[in-house]
Specification:
5-stranded antiparallel β-sheet; O16G_dom_2; alpha/beta; Glycoside hydrolase family 13 protein; 8-stranded parallel β-sheet; DUF3459
Amino acid sequence: MEGSQLAADDWWRSAVIYQVYVRSFADGDGDGTGDLTGVRSRLPYLAELGVDALWFTPWYLSPMADGGYDVADYRVIDPAFGTLAEAEKLIAEARQAGIRTIIDIVPNHVSDQHVWFRAALTAGPGSPERELFHFRPGRGENGELPPNDWESEFGGVPWTRVEDGEWYLHLFATEQPDLNWAHPAVRQEHEDVLRFWFERGVAGVRIDSAALVAKDPALPDLAGHPGPHPYVDRDELHDIYRSWRAIADEFGGIFVGEVWLPDSERFARYLRPDELHTAFNFSFLSCPWDGERLRRSIDETLAEHAPVGAPATWVLCNHDITRTVTRYGREDTGFAFTAKAFGIPSDPELGTRRARAAALLSLALPGSVYLYQGEELGLPEADVPLDRVQDPMYFRSQGRAPGRDGCRTPLPWAADEPYAGFGSRVEPWLPLPPDWASRAADLQATDPDSMLALYREALRQRRALPELHTGELRWLSEDRDALVFARGSALVCAVNLADAPAELPSHTGVLLASGPLDEDGRLPKDTAVWLAV
């Protein structure tokens, strides 16, 4: 890839990949919903930003019960976003601009509007159509109780009873019935879908909930279950992903797995040379702004990837996670879904300072980096009015959990245009906060001290500096309140998390800093710097 120090086939090993949540990125037709026309219009912005690839969250036909993760047809673009022909144009135009495309696949479940599930409901108990899913009779005297004691990832019971009395499994929302991956037709369909998109030029596929796909066919209760977990990280998953890898290798494509696992040895198994290429690093994403914890996360991440030769990935935020500026401005700077709540105070100035430092830290680490849309603008978590909330997480928690709408609010593009330039005809699907015009991309593009300017310069230098593509990481300090490491022999990254300014290590020049150094040339608190040595 242009500017890369790696062979073209290895572009993904040190790529910066920009996550596009299409619904909230840019509205090209003015109907209030982001679309592919909007993305195509912003390709020059993305090329100037300097990213290597775009990862699109699901853009397929969907009733949008869970933001597009309830897929009704993988070969059809949802009309709210555009058409298949436009998706093909976008993939081609992005590639001409030096930007590859990664799409999302959701193998665990489909929409309840998918043709398979609609046929299963009609066919009735014991039918071949129902074998594609997990239908079971209920427990209790009249089958009125769910078939087991599992809990939905969104909270509550993951079973819904249909009119004929059977229940179907959905680890997520009711509208997302789980597929039965022990059925050969399910495997064949997904392999066909992969080929469909690789043939249209995508460079890679991100696999949603990759460790949840396979289920113990007995669907046993969790309580007292003695063997392997009945639906998390089951051994039969690896045969599935080996067959997928063979398809990707035909097209020179890559896979990125969403794999949440605490066991580093089990995690690394997904990254063996004949399985997935990379996997998301949730340890780093959820880590608090604490020097000792961050260093431990970095060391453990590199150690678990080393045996299989896979590159690490680094990410600060995504479409599910509280935005970095807000999270780092709180007293508790870590992230956990169970800790999300309304009304947690945050200091935006402190959060912004730390987010700027975290940007330079993540971009200096060995491996690839994922950048969620709007992070380059320093956007905080939006406070969505309760009557506008749409996330099923909020409703399934009976209003206790704020859900994820706050990190999915549409982007501000132009300060002086209606709805901050997201789309001019109608109000967007989620409201933009009143002060977001001041964070618009057009204003930040002309401000040398803006978050956008910092990201553009950091990505420009990252492409140009060989050390950030091939240099190994070597720690230079044992200070628990500082992260100081070399990449190769010519570059050092230093991040100060102590209360007092820190002396810089020996260097020949300052390449980039997340904020101004103090008058004595020391590194202030919550500031990062790249140094030439």
